[in-house]
Amino acid sequence: MADCIFCSIVDGDIPNHTVYEDDDVLAFLDVNPLARGHTLVIPKEHHERVNDLPADLAADVFATVHDLTDDVEAAVDAEATTIAVNNGPAAGQEVPHVHAHIVPRSEADGGKP
Ligand code: 5GP
Ligand code: ZN
Description:
The mean pLDDT is 96. It is built from two helices and five strands. By secondary structure, the protein is of the alpha+beta class. It has a single domain (5-109), classed as HIT family, subunit A. The longest helix has 21 residues, at 55-75. It binds guanosine-5'-monophosphate and zinc ion. Residues 5-112 form the HIT domain.
């Protein structure tokens, strides 16, 4: 979709640090991380909100979150992760292309996001 930052990343027009990629899903490091290793998981197809996703694509995105979380934690020696989706502008969604955040966490950073 024109003027979508994450579609531009999918298309290779904006560089990214890719963590994982398949035909339907892309995972890459957040450019402004809340913690080292902060990873975003997106469907390659443009949809604004989780509510807009076909159920099978929603499943693919969450399966990728599932599969990556151990690796993300291990890569930065984290003890846990906050996994979050800001689903709509009023919930803090700034990029209108569905994305799940995987944010590495540790006891030292205080628990709640
Ligand atoms: P939201 O607030 O929409 O849930 O999160 C959007 C996230 O996308 C933010 O954490 C922000 O740092 C990240 N982001 C915005 N633009 C870019 C970009 O061009 N590249 C990457 N890698 N991340 C981006
Ligand atoms: Zn998009």
